[in-house]
Specification:
Layout (H helix, E strand, L loop, with lengths): L2 H21 L13 H10 L23 E3 L2 E4 L9 H16 L9 H11 L9 H7 L3 E4 L10 E6 L4 E11 L5 E10 L4 E8 L7 E11 L23 H8 L2
Amino acid sequence: MSTLRSTSLRATSLGLLIGLALASGLVAAPAWAGSLNPAVLSLVRSYPLDGRYSYAWRAGQQTDGVSQVLDWQGTRLAQPDQGGGVHCSGITFEVYVRALQQSLPPGAQGPSAALLQQVKEAWYVRTGDDRGPMQALVDAGLGTPILRVEDLQPGDFVQFWRNSGKGHSAIFTGHTRNRDGSIRGMIFWSAQGSSSGLGSRYVSVGPGEHQIRPGALYGVRATIPGEDSASLERPPEKEAQGPGNRADTLVRRLR
């Protein structure tokens, strides 16, 4: 078997195992009071991984890259592109808007459509700021920044930049670990060419071309407007033990 084919099979197997872990609840969000994380992961599990949402990033074109119409307070925020397909910024923004809709208390208006339009522009990295979702939500008062991979929790949104110069918008779903238990990198869900659309992949911080450039990982924990976010400012000292860590074991077996 060629090295290329072997690598491809390993990547496919990894994606399937991570997808199964996510769908079956092996990777679960802690119930942070005031955060959108539980709703975010519930939505991620609901998206099919059968290839119906193909990946379509059109360089130089400002496309929405969403799978469905997103309306907010009577205003159209985003809609599927005529050519079809989704991209990383579009699908993560879609999950954010849907999670926000599901999480607002009964009768609550939430942020204005105008504010969410501004959030979208920053989310899609159209404002000249590489921080994407982190800049979008923090500047709007709708999120808490997370700058270290160790502090990320399942359901957090991330924007990262590889040493190759390529950026990616994704949803964090778990850590990968070395044999000694130290954190090696992260598992994420998004839309990308390597999964031919929606799927899970993993990446680490380091000097390699396809690794995350040190200092170029920007995370954010989305908050419910009006909720007290004090409990979101500091993650727990130790990750919860249990089913969530079984995903790390699956990843280690495929290295």
